[in-house]
Amino acid sequence: MTTTTVPTTLTAGGARARMIGNEASKGLRLLWAYRATLIPSLLSMFFMYLVFQYFVGGGRIVDGLVSDTAPALFAYVVVYLTTMRLVAGILEERNAGTLEQIHLSPLPTWQLAVGRLAAALIEALGVAVVVTAAVLVAVGVDYPFRPAVLVPLALTVAGAAGFALMIAAASFTYPGIGALVHIIQMAVMAVNGTIAPPELFPRGLELVARLAPTTIGIDATRSIVVDGDGLGDVWASGALGWLVLHTAVLLAAGWGAYCWQIRRAVRDGRLGPA
Amino acid sequence: MNVVNTIEPTAGERASAAERTPLLVARRLTKVFGSANRAVRAVEDVDLVVHGGEVVALLGPNGAGKTTIIKMAAGLVTPTRGTVSVLGHDLVRRRGEAVRHLGAVLEGGRNVYWALSAWQNLIYFGRLRGLRSREIAPRAEWLLRELGLWARRREAVGGFSRGMQQKVAIAAALVSDPAVLLLDEPTIGLDVSAARTVKDWVRRLAAEQRKAVVLTTHQLAVAQELSDRVAVINQGRIIADRPVGDLLAQFREDRYHVQVAAEPDDVPPSMLFEIVDGDPAAGSTTLAVGAATDNGALYEVLGLLAASRVPLVSVTPVQPDLEEVFVRLVGADR
Questions:
Q1: Is 60 exceeded by the pLDDT of residue B70?
Q2: Strand locations in chain B, DSSP E?
Q3: Which of B304, B225, B321, B311 has its CA nearest to residue B262?
Q4: Nearest-neighbour CA in chain B from A75: distance (Å)
Q5: Are B175 and B122 in contact (CB under 8 A)?
Q6: Is A10 close to B109, i.e. CB distance below 8 A?
Q7: Residue B128: left (phi > 0), alpha (psi -120 to 50), or beta?
Q8: Least CB-CB distance to A97: which of B33, B109, B115?
Q9: Which of these, B184, B146, B170, B142, lies nearest to B57 by C-alpha position?
Q10: Which residues of A touch B176 (CB under 8 A)?
Q11: What is the pLDDT of residue B293?
C-alpha cells in the first residue's frame, strides 16, 4: 500500500506557483490534444484578413494599409482565441464534470482562474504571432523592432484578458454564450482597426471604437512601430494614460465578474453538468 | 503525598480514539435553490456523521437530495444553512484545509479529462491537490497497477471502456490519499465485472485504509452489500439513518415461509397459515406462517403438515431486503 502525506500548508509562493503552472500546463496539453482545430482557424484568420484588405484597398492589397492594420489583427487574434478558449473550456468542463473536480482543489478560485487564463493566453499569443508574421511576410511589410512597443502590447494583451474573463464569466449563466461570442468578436474586429484604422471611421463610430477592447492599445502600438514615436511621446499624447486606465478597468471588471460568477455557480450548484 | 498515576494510552487505544473521531460531520445542512416564490427546498436539516472505516449509503428516490448533500459535503454547493467539517476543518471557513482530505467521484460527468492519458490525469489531479510529481508518481503507479490500468496508462482515457474510465476517476479521487471519499452512483452503467472491482475497492478503502466513504446509489443491493449504515432520504430530509442490520431488523416480520412438495389443494386447511404461492404444475406450495414469540404457531403448522404426510421442502424466516425496507420507509413518509 502506498500512502501519501497530504501537505499541511500551501501558503508558500512556490507551491502556489507550481499549482498555477499545473493548471496552465493541463490547459496546454488539452489544446494540443485538440490541435486539429487549430490549423483551420489559423488559415481562416490569415485569408479572412487578406480578403478584407483586398476590398478595403479597392481591389488590391495596399502595403501602407496592411502596416497600419496588422497590429490590430494581432490583437484581434489574441482577444478572439483567449475568449473562445476560456468560454469553450468552461462549457466543456462543466458538462464533463471536471470543473467540479478542479474546484475540489485547495487552491482559491482566483489561482485556478490564473492558470486557466495563462493557458489560453499562451495559445492565443502563439497563434497571433504566427498569423501576423505570415501576413507581414506574404505582403512584404517590415516593422522595425522597438522594445518600447512591448509596453502597449503587454497592456493590450492584459486588457484582452480582462475582456475574455468578462465574457467567460457570462458562460456560467448563459450556456448559449458560444454563439454570442462570435458576434461580439466580429464587432471587436470591425472596430479595433483590423479592417481599417479607426481614424477613417465616422466620428461617432470612432468614439465607440476607442472604448472597445484593444483599440487604444493598437493606436499606441502603431504610433511606436509605424510612426516611430517613443514611449514619452505616446504618454504625452495621453494615449498611454488612457490605455493604462482602459486596461485596468477591463481587468478589474473581468476579474470581478469571473470570481462573482464562480461564487454564484457554487451557490446555485451550477459548476457541474446540468 | 499524593501520587498521581498517569496512564499513557496504548497504541490500540489511540487508534480506537481516532476511529471514534468523525472524519466528516454535517450539521443541519439545508439547501434552498432559487428565491422567493420560486424557491425549491432541496435539502432540509440533514445531520450526517461518518467515521473512519465506515461506509454510509445515501438512499432515496430521484430528486430526494442525495447528490445535493454529496456536493455540499464536497464544498461544490454552498449550503443555505448548516455546516460541513472534514477532519474538524470547516468547509467554508477553512476550505483549503478541508478539501485536501476529500476525494469525490460525481455522477453525470466524466470526472477526468478524456483527452489526457490515465497517467497525465493522475499527475494533474495530484498536483491540483498540492502534491509534487515525485510524491504522486509512486501512488499513481500503485493505483493504476491495482486497478489493472498500468499497461494502458499512456493511452487517452477517451478510448477506454466505461468501466475503465470509472476506475481512472476513482484513482484520480484517491491519488492524494484523502481520508474522506464521496461517491455519487459509483457503479451506475458499469458491467458486472467493473462494478465488482469498484465494490471491492470501496470495501478495501474502508476496511484496510480506514477511510470514511459516503456513497449514493439507486442499486439497493449495492448499498446493502457495501454499507455499514444507510441514510434514507426523502424530499430532502433524512427519514432513517441506521446500521443496515438494525434497519432490516426493524422491518423484520415475525413470519416464516414454509415450502412443501404438494399442490395447494393437498395442504390441510388451517387458520394458522396462508398460501402465498402455489404451483400445481410443479407440485409445490409456499405457506406463510405467522410466528408467535416462542414459534409455537410454526411448530403447530409443521405438526399439521407431518400428520397429513405432506413432504416438507424448506422453512425460511421472512427477511425483507433493503429494497423492501426502502419502499416501506419512503411510502410511509409520503
A1: yes
A2: 22-33, 40-51, 55-59, 81-86, 89-90, 102-105, 180-184, 212-216, 229-234, 237-243, 255-260, 273-279, 284-290, 312-317
A3: B311
A4: 29
A5: yes
A6: no
A7: alpha
A8: B109
A9: B184
A10: 4, 6
A11: 59
Residue B108 at interface with chain A, using a CB cutoff of 8 Å: yes
Report the C-alpha gap between A197 and A188 in whole angstroms.
Answer: 13
Per DSSP, the three-state class of B15 is helix
Q: Is the ipTM of this complex over 0.90?
A: no
Single pTM value for the model = 0.82
The Cβ-side half-sphere exposure at B271, using a 13 Å CA radius, reads: 0
What is the Cα–Cα distance from B288 to B6, expressed in whole angstroms? 61
**Interface list for A 79-98 with B (CB within 8 A):** 95-98
Pairs across A and B, CB distance < 8 A: 135
- On chain A, the residues whose CB falls within 8 A of the CB of B138 are 2
CA nearest A115 in B: which residue? B128
User: Grid coordinates in use for B232?
Assistant: 434514507
- Give the model's confidence band at B266: pLDDT under 50 very low, under 70 low, under 90 confident, else very high: confident
Q: Nearest-CA neighbor of A258 among A149, A123, A148, A167?
A: A167
pLDDT at position B312 over 50: yes
The closest CB to that of B139, out of A2, A97, A273, belongs to: A2
Q: How confident is residue A128, by pLDDT bands cut at 50, 70 and 90?
A: very high
Our CA-based measurement puts residue B224 at a distance from the nearest CA of chain A, in whole angstroms, of: 27
